[in-house]
Write a structure and sequence with these properties.
single chain, mainly alpha, Arc Repressor Mutant, subunit A, two-stranded antiparallel ribbon, globular
């Protein structure tokens, strides 16, 4: 029986996800810790709710990961000066160093992925995957090629 395109995408996603998580675990981290550090660094003081939305996870799930990163001194929660109910997440200098270390692991896997594909495969996937994502997330800018 022929596998559907959706199934092939899922299997590819799952295998890359699991491999990246395994490699990050060798460095004492997880895929979610890398994503959280990356999103927090890019968002520069986003609220916990905003980070959860960017990561497409529920706020209670984010809190668990934030607790661990806070204990490790990689992020800090800072009270919003305009709304004490809001906690802003700021990556510490140690967190930025850790992010750089984890980015090296991510880039090594990316280089490996690129090594098993042809230049044409990479070009097609680089155009097609964002369009698929945009279609299902209703991101018009990506779907129209504006981003």
């Amino acid at each position: 029986m022929e596998k559907t395109l959706g199934r092939l995408l899922f299997l590819s996603h799952r295998s890359v996800h699991d491999e990246l998580d395994r490699r990050l675990a060798e460095h004492g981290a997880s895929l979610w810790h890398w994503v959280l550090l990356k999103e927090a660094a890019n968002a520069e003081g986003a609220s916990q709710r905003e980070l959860a939305r960017h990561m497409r996870i529920e706020p209670p799930t984010l809190v668990r990961h934030l607790d661990r990163l806070t204990e490790e001194g990689l992020v800090e929660r800072q009270a919003d000066p305009d709304d004490r109910r809001v906690a802003r997440v700021v990556v510490t200098p140690a967190g930025l160093d850790r992010l750089a270390e984890l980015q090296a692991v991510v880039h090594a896997l990316d280089d490996e992925l690129r090594g098993i594909l042809t230049k044409r495969d990479i070009e097609v996937l680089s155009r097609a995957l964002p369009r698929i994502h945009a279609y299902f997330t209703h991101d018009e800018e990506v779907a129209d090629g504006r981003r």
